[in-house]
Every structure is written in structure tokens, then in C-alpha cells.
Design a protein that fits this description.
- The chain is of the alpha+beta class.
- The chain has a seven-stranded mixed beta sheet with strand order 4-7-2-1-10-13-12, with no helix packed on it. The protein has a five-stranded mixed beta sheet with strand order 15-16-17-19-18, covered by helices on one side.
- α7 packs across α8, α11 packs antiparallel against α12 and α24 runs antiparallel to α25.
- The chain is globular, with a radius of gyration of 30 Å.
- It is built from 26 helices and 28 strands.
Length: 884
């Protein structure tokens, strides 16, 4: 699964930074703890009040599910009551005792009405006990079954999937969703789709809903003939029923976990790609996006080949389907052979130019078909064995397709997001046996840290052994559930080395090292010293000392002339190397592979040298980010970085350079005209706007009229043109509006032009687009909308506009971005009105008092309606200040 923490993580970043994400998560602040503080126990006798009775409790341990019965095969015959949002199901389950004889079986079944329960080959009803609150049914069998004997149960039922909650990762646990079931919303398709992880599929079929269970399946889906269906495995048959309905028969002959079962129903266009190694590859999208399917799901065929090669295991399933659904409750889900994505994936060819997010999420879900589907974590505590590998697949793909620098930029984002989560919420073990709720496992530990730990293991093992471990692990444990010790033993068997130290400190302990590294050259002995101090706190099961195998690189004459292998295994440790003449630079962990926070004791020139000699994008970024652009060394470095081969580093340079000099302005103009990456080109345009460059009008007009450029470039050009030639910008904006351009960047840019124009007649444009603009652009768009409302000076217009904002902010079907942006803009407008209130006369105060009350009510209603706990917590930071 990919978290919609994807837009949501970027949302958290937005809230932290108050600016859109351009390249990386903001830098983290390092804690400096040179020594462990040891406090001696008091020698004073304890008073009677101080002595407490000890309590003895077993530690919490979230074990894998004990399976008395093993589910072998599931056959489901399903139809759907759209009006009542119910599943009408008939299930035939084939089971057998795991070892001991069994005369009963307990199944997960949440929100069920049972019409009939019997043995599949009999007619007599079986006695059962249904615990509706616990979501379990225990069925007494017709006799006792011995190990090796199979039996079949038939259950005729009605399931009414309902949500009992959700989390930041998966916003609803409903399991199966009816979207626009009555067709009342003309702008939304009618669909049914499922989301089974973690244990939600038991809201629509009876099963043993655990990750360490697996079975084969058949699915008979009866739907209106206008709908297409998708499920796991192959479509082996379809029959017309003569009453306007059709029954599709899907069959999955390979076993997989029940949480990976999926169903989707809707009026989809099915775009068939070329078969891959004889396996069908297809894409389900809304009809208007059919021509863009290859851009929405980029490089699918190439990824199937690449991942088959690096794992040593050809894609192991009978087909590969990808589908985009409306209102999905997470990011994407790796259901076996039927991956579900949220509609944030949609875009036209121009909208998806230079967008690497789609390919990263396609890679993530595809790689799960090896790590997660073929080999599955045996408990949610071991979730990183699914998600850590899928997270690392994004790095592997970026490295393969776009080069090492692109992969390292992704590495920076992943590491900073993990470190930021620890600073906000604390650290826990990667294999986390004492979580409160399984949903907590879907965090930056299981995903980000898991992938980063694999990157370190790759560095330690070397590529040949690391990837050989993939093949052995997948071969030895295919179609089974695994725990972390089996991964460790795989690499131990291959390497002949005891790896307990690595797996214990990274998987079974919490946290990461915080490193202070100092370098010195000793001319009298022609030696360099590298002092490494580990300063991390030891709270929360964080090791006082991490064992860190790495290298020290010694650079002379502009290149690395020596690499020294070292093992950091002390709290404070110094390494000494004979070097002769003073080197250009000495770098600890020159690949920046170690997961942690580091502070290098370089001066300004040495950081500049690190940028110039760095071995990958991460190293160059570290050199760059530590330099102040207001000093000469930093300014020159940032000007130099405007020509960096990696576009994200060019964008960093643009964002930090400040006012360009005569030496750099020509380069920035060239970037604004023709940088090969749209993000860098748009960033350069923003720089020209900020500096009111004399050539801005010409450059902006060319960008605004570029019919082939990515929309962010056109939007930046249009916004820039509004500052240089408003009438010309207005004419272009009107043309784009008439063309029906609905891209969020373009909506924001058109809105900015209309805001500069200041004509209240433009309000209708904003009101039409309030729910279409999304992401970072929504904050600016909503701010502009309120500014035009304010300029109207008509209380009725203002009140109607505020009502519309309240509708957007409380609509849980809209994105977290939109809801947050509404609340934030309302809060900021409240602050501006409050400042006016304090200076107003009595007449003005009466009007402002009513408006402030209305703004406070709207903000409170948004808070009250919000369903994502993390977002609700962030909203508290923006709560309007009370009046004095």
C-alpha cells in the first residue's frame, strides 16, 4: 500500500513550512548530546508515601494469529443492492484443520445478517454463534475433522459495510464502498470498490481475515450490464442473465492473503497494453482518461521486466491490472493482480509532464507483488517486510530509469520525512510488537525507515549478494507468511556471516544515530583524523551505540584517491589515516548511506568542496544546504549550482540564491525560457517575478502561450505576465477559461490574474472552481477568492461566499488539502479582520463583530467535521485568536 499520506504527507509539510514543497523536506535540527547523563540513585531513605506497590504485567506482544483451521479456497457469488448499500453474498469456504482435530470454525464477519449456514454438501443448518460486536461467527461443524481432511461451509448472507473509524493511512475501515450509489451527483461516477488492508475485507465476505492466512479464490460478480468488473486473477467466463444483468466469473488459482482480495465495479474504459511475457496488462480508467492511460501508469511494462530481473523471479501472477477509482480512502493498494489507485493519479499528457510521483507509486504497488503478495508479513508488527521493500523499490526504479542523482533526491525526501516523524511523534521499533492499533504500523517507520535500512544492508552486503538475497528469500518463502528472522537467516545463509547485530539494532531497536563528525589534518605527522561522536538519546529503546560499517573517502587533486573501510562501534571514536600532503577533503560515509542525522565539522570552503566533489546528489545537496547564500562562498556555489545536472538541485539553488547577480541573471533567464525540467523552469520564472526582471514580460508571454509546455510552466508564465502586462495576461486567462482548462495550476494562475484585475464579476469563476483546485495551489486560490469577496463591499456577497467556503471546508469527500486550505485561509482572514477591528470606530466594529463571529463559526465547524486525527490536530494551530 502507498499511503495517501502522499498527498497527506505533503500536506503536513505544507502546514509545517507554509510553502509548497519544491525539492526536499525542511532540514532537521540536530540534538547535541556529547555524553550519556547518568544519575546516581539517592542514598536518602524513601518515605512511606514514596514507596509504591510494584505492578507485574506481561509486556504487550502483538502475536501472529493462531490458526486452528486453514482456509484453502474461497468461492463468492455476489450481487449488490445499490439503494441500501449492501452486498448480497453466497460464500463457499473450503478449510481443513491446521493440525489438531476441529469440530468448529471461527470466521471474521463484520456487519452480517446470516440467511443460511450449512455444510456445502448438506442441507441441514449448522448451529452458529454470532458475536456482532466482535465481528466473529463461530460455526459448529457436522462432525470432528482430522488433520488432512477438508470440509466446505456454505454461507448465504447480507453484508452491510459500515465504517467504525479510520486512520491517517486509511481514512475508513468500511472495506467495501458504494460511490454515488443513487447517481445523485452528476459529476461523480457510480462505482463499487474494496479496500481490505488491514482486516476490512471481512466486512463484505466471511473469512479468516489475517495476513498469515492465504487461499485461492473464485468470484462470481452479478452487475448491471453497463458496468465493467475487476477482481483478482483471470476473467474465465461471463454470461448474460437476460434481465439486464451480467455475471462475470473471476478465478485466482494461486493462494494469497484475504486482505488482498478485491472487487471493482463501474463504467470504466479498459485500455489493453501489449502482453508482457504472455501475461495480460490492462488499465481501468474513466472513459475521458483512456487516451492518457500510458501516462497515468507510466513504464508499467518496463517495470515488470526490471523487477523480474532484480528479484530473479519473473512476475509470478497471471495478469497485471491497474485501476483508478473515485474517493479512494488511501493512496493505492497492491491487491494481487488488481492494484487500486486513488483518482489523484489522473492527468492528461501535459499535466503529467515531469511528474515522477505516478511512476513511483506504480513501482511501489507493483513491487508488492513480490514483497507483500508472493511473500507476506505474518503479522502487522512485521509490516515493514511488505512496505519497506515496496518503499525501496521506488529508489531502485529511479536509479535504474533516471540515474543515481534522481534516486538520491528521493532518498533525501524519504529520510527527512522519517526523521521529521520521529521528531514529531517519537521513535519505535521497526518490528513493533507493542503497538496499540495495527493502523499505527502504517507510518514513516514501516515505509521510510524500512526502505532506508534495506539501502544500508545493500551497501554492507554489496549489490551481488544483496539481490541474490531477494531471489533466495522469495524462492524459499513463496506463498507463505514470513517474519524478520527469516529475512536475516536468508542473508546469513548466503553470506556465511552472523547478522544479528545489524537486524537487532535496525529492526528490533528504535531510533537512529545522531552523528557529529570532525575532521583534522596533522601536518607534523601528515595524518588526518576523523572523529565520530554518537549523540543520540537512549530513551525509547534507542541504542547508545550503533554499529556502523562505512567508508572514509580521501580526496586529492579533485578526485577520491583512497577509500578506507571503518567500523564505528563506540560512542566517541577517532580514526587516523596517513595521507602525506593535506587532502582537498575527507568525507565520512561519502555515499551518505547511513540512516541518521549528521553534522559535519566543515568550514564554508569545505562544504563548497563537498558539493563540487560529492559522489552523488545527496552529497552535493549536503554541501549546498550548509552554505549561506548571503556570504561570498555560498553565493558563488549557488550560482554554480544553477547548472547542476540534477533538476532538483537547480531548484534548490534558485530557491536559496536570493537576489540574482549580473553573473547569474542570464542563466536564470535561460532556465525560465528552456530548462529541460518544468519544475526548474517554473521556479526560474518565479525568481524573475520576485526581481521584477526587465525581460519578464517577453519571457512570461512566451511561457503563457506555450502549447506544449507542462501546465506549471504555463501557469508560472501567466502569473508572471500579470505582473508585467495585466491586460495581456487577462486576455490569455479568458482564452484558457473558455477552453475549459481545469488543471489545478492553471486554475490558480487564472485566479491570480483575475485577482490582480480586482473585478467582483469574476467571482463566478472562483465559485465554479473552488472544489476543482487542489494541492498547494488551493491556499492561494482560496485567499484570492476571499480578497475579491472583501473588495465587493457587499455584505450579501460576502456572506454567500463564506457559506460556500464553509461547505468546502466541511466536505469530507474533498481532499485533505482542500479542507486544510479552507480552514487556514479562514483563519488568516480572521486575523486580518481582527486587526481592523482593533482600529475601527463603533459603527465599523458592529459589522466586523458579526463577520468575526461568522469566521469563528466556520472554522469551528471545519474542526468538528474533520475525520483525520492528524489533520484535526494541525488545525488547532490555526484556530482564530479570540477577541480581546
Amino acid at each position: 500500500m502507498k499511503l495517501l499520506s502522499i498527498p497527506f504527507c505533503t500536506l503536513l509539510l505544507l502546514m509545517a513550512c507554509n510553502t509548497p514543497k519544491t525539492v526536499v523536506v525542511p532540514e532537521t535540527e540536530l540534538r547535541q548530546l556529547d555524553t550519556i547523563q547518568v544519575v546516581a540513585p539517592s542514598m536518602e531513605p524513601e518515605t512511606e508515601e514514596e514507596i509504591a506497590e510494584p505492578t507485574y504485567e506481561l509486556p504487550v506482544y502483538r502475536a501472529s494469529q493462531s490458526l486452528n483451521n486453514d482456509l484453502i479456497h474461497t468461492t463468492l457469488d455476489l450481487s449488490f443492492d445499490w439503494e441500501n448499500e449492501q452486498v448480497l453474498g453466497k460464500a463457499t469456504l473450503t478449510l481443513q484443520p491446521t493440525f489438531r482435530p476441529q469440530n468448529a470454525v471461527t470466521l471474521d464477519a463484520k456487519g452480517f445478517e446470516f440467511k443460511e449456514v450449512r455444510m456445502a454438501n448438506g442441507h441441514s443448518p449448522l448451529p452458529y454463534k454470532y458475536d456482532a460486536e466482535g465481528g466473529e461467527v463461530t460455526i459448529n461443524l457436522d462432525r470432528t475433522y482430522e488433520r488432512g481432511e477438508t470440509y466446505q461451509i456454505y454461507i448465504d448472507y447480507i453484508a452491510t459495510p459500515e465504517s467504525s473509524g479510520g486512520s491517517a493511512a486509511i481514512s475508513s475501515d468500511q472495506g467495501l464502498f458504494f460511490i454515488n450509489p443513487q447517481g445523485e451527483d452528476p459529476n461523480k461516477p457510480q462505482q463499487i470498490w474494496t479496500q481490505g488492508e488491514t482486516e476490512y475485507n471481512s466486512r463484505w465476505f466471511p473469512t479468516i481475515d489475517q495476513p498469515n492466512e492465504r487461499c485461492t479464490q473464485e468470484m462470481f460478480l452479478t452487475v448491471q450490464d453497463k458496468y465493467k468488473t475487476l477482481s483478482n486473477g483471470l476473467l474465465v467466463g461471463s454470461r448474460q442473465n437476460g434481465n439486464g444483468t451480467r455475471t462475470d466469473h473471476w478465478k485466482m488459482n494461486q493462494p494469497h492473503a484475504p486482505y488482498l482480495f478485491m472487487v471493482a465495479v463501474g463504467e470504466f474504459a479498459i485500455v489493453e497494453d501489449e502482453p508482457w511475457n504472455g501475461i495480460s496488462v490492462d488499465y481501468y480508467v474513466e472513459p475521458e482518461y483512456a487516451e492518457h492511460a500510458d501516462d497515468i501508469f507510466p513504464y508499467t511494462q518496463e517495470m515488470l521486466t526490471f523487477f523480474s530481473e532484480i528479484t530473479g523471479i519473473d512476475y509470478p501472477w497471471p495478469k497485471y491490472s491497474q485501476i483508478v477509482v473515485s474517493d479512494f480512502v488511501s493512496g493505492a493498494m497492491e491487491n494481487t493482480t488488481g492494484v487500486v489507485f486513488g483518482d489523484f493519479m489522473y492527468g492528461t499528457d501535459r499535466e503529467l509532464i515531469d511528474v515522477d510521483f505516478n511512476e513511483q507509486i506504480v513501482a511501489h504497488e507493483m513491487f508488492h507483488h513480490w514483497f507483500g503478495d508472493l511473500v507476506t508479513c505474518e503479522s502487522w508488527a512485521n509490516l515493514t517486510l511488505n512496505e519497506g521493500f515496496a518503499n525501496y523499490s521506488e529508489y531502485l526504479w529511479m536509479e535504474h530509469k533516471h540515474g543515481l542523482d534522481a534516486a538520491e533526491m528521493h532518498h533525501i525526501d524519504v529520510q527527512n520525512a522519517y526523521v521529521g516523524s520521529v521528531q514529531r511523534s517519537g521513535a519505535h521499533e521497526l518490528i513493533w510488537f507493542d503497538y496499540d492499533n495495527a493502523e499505527q504500523m502504517f507510518d514513516a517507520h514501516s515505509y521510510n525507515k524500512g526502505g532506508l535500512v534495506l539501502h544500508m544492508l545493500r551497501g554492507y552486503m554489496g549489490d551481488e549478494l544483496f539481490f541474490a538475497g531477494f531471489k533466495k528469500f522469495l524462492t524459499d518463502y513463496q506463498f507463505t507468511a514470513v517474519e524478520v528472522d527469516e529475512l536475516r537467516m536468508t542473508y546469513e545463509d548466503l553470506s556465511g556471516e552472523d547478522l544479528n547485530w545489524f537486524f537487532d539494532q535496525w529492526f528490533l531497536k528504535a531510533g537512529h544515530p545522531q552523528l557529529t563528525i570532525d575532521y583534522d589534518y596533522l601536518p607534523e605527522s601528515s595524518e588526518v583524523t576523523v572523529r565520530v561522536r554518537q549523540t543520540q538519546s537512549t530513551e525509547d529503546n534507542v541504542p547508545a551505540i550503533f554499529q556502523l560499517p562505512t567508508k572514509v573517502a580521501i580526496y586529492k587533486a579533485g578526485r577520491a584517491t583512497r577509500y578506507e573501510d571503518i567500523m564505528v562501534n563506540e560512542r566517541d571514536q577517532t580514526f587516523t589515516f596517513a595521507v602525506g600532503d593535506e587532502p582537498d577533503l575527507v568525507v565520512f560515509d561519502p555515499e551518505f548511506r547511513i540512516l541518521g542525522e549528521r553534522q559535519d565539522g566543515y568550514d564554508e570552503e569545505e562544504f563548497a568542496t563537498l558539493y563540487r566533489l560529492g559522489e552523488n546528489g545527496f552529497a552535493r545537496y549536503e554541501g549546498m544546504r550548509n552554505l549561506d547564500p548571503s556570504i561570498e562562498t555560498g553565493r558563488k556555489l549557488y550560482e554554480e549550482a544553477l547548472s547542476d545536472p540534477e533538476h532538483e538541485l537547480r531548484q534548490v539553488a534558485l530557491s536559496r540564491l536570493g537576489s540574482p547577480t549580473e553573473e547569474s541573471i542570464d542563466r536564470i533567464r535561460e532556465m525560465a525560457k528552456s530548462d529541460p525540467h518544468s519544475g526548474a523552469r517554473a521556479e526560474a520564472m518565479q525568481m524573475l517575478i520576485a526581481t521584477e526582471d526587465e525581460q519578464l514580460g517577453e519571457i512570461a508571454a512566451a511561457a503563457a502561450n506555450d502549447q506544449t509546455a507542462a501546465y506549471p510552466v504555463v501557469a508560472a508564465g501567466l502569473s508572471a505576465l500579470a505582473t508585467a502586462d495585466l491586460p495581456r495576461a487577462t486576455a490569455i486567462a479568458q482564452q484558457l477559461e473558455a477552453q475549459g482548462v481545469d488543471n489545478a495550476d492553471m486554475i490558480g494562475a487564472i485566479g491570480a490574474v483575475y485577482a490582480a484585475e480586482g473585478d467582483p464579476a469574476r467571482l463566478s469563476y472562483f465559485e465554479d472552481k473552488l472544489t476543482q483546485v487542489d494541492g498547494p495551489a488551493s491556499i492561494g486560490f482560496y485567499t484570492t477568492y476571499l480578497s475579491i469577496l472583501d473588495a465587493s463591499e457587499d455584505p450579501a456577497v460576502m456572506n454567500a461566499g463564506l457559506d460556500r467556503m464553509a461547505e468546502v471546508g466541511t466536505d469530507q469527500s474533498l481532499s485533505p488539502y482542500q479542507r486544510f486550505a479552507t480552514a487556514r485561509v479562514i483563519s488568516e482572514y480572521h486575523g486580518a479582520q481582527l486587526a481592523q477591528y482593533e482600529e475601527a470606530d463603533d459603527t465599523q466594529k458592529e459589522m466586523l463583530d458579526a463577520r468575526l463571529s461568522r469566521l469563528e463559526e466556520i472554522f469551528q465547524s471545519i474542526e468538528d467535521e474533520e475525520t483525520i486525527p492528524e489533520l484535526k490536530a494541525y488545525l488547532e494551530r490555526f484556530r482564530p485568536q479570540p477577541r480581546a
